[in-house]
Amino acid sequence: MKTSTKLSMVTVAGVCAVALVVPALTAPAAESIVPTVRTPSAWVRPVSPGGSDSSPGWERGTWPQAGSSSGAGSSESGSSDSGSSGQPGAASGMQDSPATASATTQPTAAQSRGVVLINSTMPSGEGAGTGMVLTSSGQVLTNYHVVEGSTSLTATIADTGEQYRATVVGWDAARDVALIQLQDASGLATVTLDDDDLAVGDALTAVGNASGGGKLIAAPGQVTALEQQVKVSNEGKAENLSGVIATDAAAEPGDSGGPMFDHEGEVAGMTTAGGQTTTAVPGYRGRAVATTNVSYAVPIEDAMSVINQIRAGHESGTVRIGPRAYLGVSVASSSLTVASVADGGPAAGAGLTVGSTITSIDGQAVTTHDELAAALEPREPGQKVALTWLDADGVRHSATVTLGSSPVA
């Protein structure tokens, strides 16, 4: 099973980014997607100088690798001579392309301390993210979207390689915060939380399980804005996050749930979304682009207010504690067509199969992922519901289903 980049659009003042979790995909789908940050509509690059109304000189292509000056897996270098670019008619005196991505580095020992690599199993495959150890007994802070829909979780301590099974204690989907517990953990190193105020221009470094690679990568940057509002569209669901920190760190998918360290090595925020935008650079030869990184973090004090409410056992507002009602299916983002069915789950027992389309819960019509989630949200594990669906041949079925207890979240 391969993992791949989740392309979850974030819109803020006209800028697009992606939720930085490496999601579950079936193997055939994963094979066709490169695990790297890109704009959801694909990278658009200039392929020749100038252009016209009928031939604007732009085409879609793959996102260039970090440090590469061109797209589609190629590179360009050489003198400013017009013939060296492979573009007939290119104007002489144009310079080579600038680098397209900020440098990433290996984290320091201090930046690795208390950070975990999270791997999740879902009905549709596997995903990856990052977390931060809050207590020596194994409480870990991460994003809710890292663990959402998981049937099992494992966490690897980044600087020791120790692995633990984990369960979700509680979460707040609206603020994208979750608390997980590493089973039978003790004596773990923890992160240090910041208690200072941030200002625009302050240095921050995002550290995480970049592209689900199984090792930590550090992406240095600066605070570019505070108290931002972003709208996250994720697998057909939309969430609004407010009060987040904007930075120019080149965070990648897999960094979700990981720390953003300040210059003192303390955690100032939790990485939650990011991406890159590319712009044609006038005066540069061939496929020249400039890249701007943007990433967003939940302020650590906001995340900890949720964690402390969970620890206190106060389930209210958008904070949830304990297992959820569980149907045991994953559905397509644009419809309620069943993409996968968990073996032994309630849906499998009722006879749902891949390709079926769920049409109602307890007589309430559902047509979107959000409507299905809303119909299940108030229900408890063990509760019976009437489920109606169409199979892949369009034949209508109905059954009474006893909702299970979510293995994770």
Polypeptide structure, described:
The strands form six sheets. Strands 1, 2, 11, 12, 13, 14, 15 and 16 form an eight-stranded antiparallel β-sheet that branches. The protein has helices at about 25-30, 110, 145, 300-310, 345-350, 370-375, and strands spanning about 10, 15-20, 45, 60, 115-120, 125-135, 140, 150-155, 165-170, 175-180, 205-210, 215-235, 235-245, 260, 265-280, 290-300, 320, 325, 330, 340, 355-360, 365, 385-390, 395-400, 405. The protein is globular and about 60 Å long. It has six helices and 25 strands. It is mainly beta and about 400 residues long. The two termini are about 20 Å apart.
Give descriptors for this structure.
9% helix, 25 strands, mainly beta, disordered N terminus, 39% strand, eight-stranded antiparallel beta sheet, 409 residues, six-stranded antiparallel beta barrel
For the sheet with most strands, the description reads: 8 strands, antiparallel
Tell me, what's the shape?
Answer: globular
Straight-line N-to-C gap: 22 Å
Q: What is the gyration radius calculated from CA atoms?
A: 23 Å
User: Stretches where pLDDT falls below 50 for ≥5 residues?
Assistant: 1-18, 23-102
Strand content: 35-45%
Instruction: Compute the number of helices.
Output: 6
Which percent bin holds the helix content? Answer: under 10%
DSSP summary, beta strand count: 25
Class by alpha and beta content: mainly beta
Give the overall pLDDT as a whole number.
75
